[in-house]
Design brief:
Blueprint (H helix, E strand, L loop, with lengths): L1 E12 L4 E8 L10 E7 L2 E6 L9 E6 L6 H10 L3 E8 L12 E6 L3 H14 L5 E7 L8 H8 L5 E7 L9 E2 L3 H7 L7 E5 L2 H13 L7 E2 L7
Parallel strand pairs: 7-8, 7-11, 8-9, 9-10, 11-12
Antiparallel strand pairs: 1-2, 1-6, 2-5, 3-4, 3-6
Length: about 230
């Protein structure tokens, strides 16, 4: 990985527990959509976060879910609040977009795993891909949702795109899909073997979905998640 100093451009609360961070690197570093960076707290403490921006952006975007006053992620947010400059290492990960593939694509995320699929989705739009792209974003409740309209706008730029935000504990005014994130997907798609599947979220969720999708015919060689290296 390359070590890069970055200016903190902005820190914005997207929800009560999710923060958008925009960083301006001192030099541009090549990365692929779907890779991650390490936020350097010190030489022995480097914390990974998916890169939410696409490779052609001037700024590096992070979407950090921080729960608890002194949580692992909130410590990073506090460092950003008190610093004009931070240090990162990038790029890392092996779950990047396979740009050579022409197979239809499923992008699936739970919670702030959305940052991973946002990078890939934006890159797919920039590449003007022709194959179908279906996006599923699972949320515990509506208060956790952000950038819904922006994501619909991105997906609408694709030749053949769909976006399905899925809320597990939905209120009566929710207009989208309801349930756990994989349930509408399995209702919609019969031939998982045809798809490249990119996933991000809690490790236990990703592990469960890997098993579930393979049992439904998905090809493990065409499933991608950095969590696979740890589960």
């Amino acid at each position: 990985m390359n070590t890069i100093n970055c200016q903190v451009q902005s820190l914005t609360a997207l929800t009560d527990n999710v923060y958008q961070v925009l960083l301006k690197p001192e030099k541009m570093v090549k990365f692929e959509a779907g890779q991650y960076l390490n936020f350097v707290m010190d030489d022995d403490d480097k914390r990974p976060f998916s890169i939410a921006s696409s490779p052609n952006c001037d700024l590096i975007e992070l979407q950090i879910g921080a729960f608890g006053a002194d949580s692992w992620a909130m410590q990073v947010i506090d460092r950003i609040k008190e610093s004009d400059t931070v240090t990162i290492e990038m790029p890392g990960g092996n779950a990047q977009l396979r740009t050579e593939s022409k197979r239809p694509i499923i992008l699936l995320a739970g919670g702030t795993g959305f940052s991973y699929i946002k990078s890939i989705l934006t890159d797919l739009v920039n590449r003007n891909v022709k194959q179908p792209v279906v996006v599923y974003w699972g949320l515990r409740d509506q208060s956790a949702a952000y950038h819904i309209e922006q994501t619909h706008a991105l997906v609408n730029q694709l030749n053949n795109g769909q976006f399905h935000p899925v809320v597990e504990n939905a209120k009566s005014d929710w207009q989208g899909r309801v349930g756990r994130v994989h349930e509408p997907l399995l209702d919609d798609i019969n031939e998982l073997a045809d798809y490249d599947i990119y996933m991000a979220g809690r490790f236990d969720m990703v592990g469960f979905l890997r098993t579930e999708f393979v049992s439904k015919g998905a090809n493990l060689e065409h499933m991608y998640a950095d969590a696979f290296a740890y589960i």
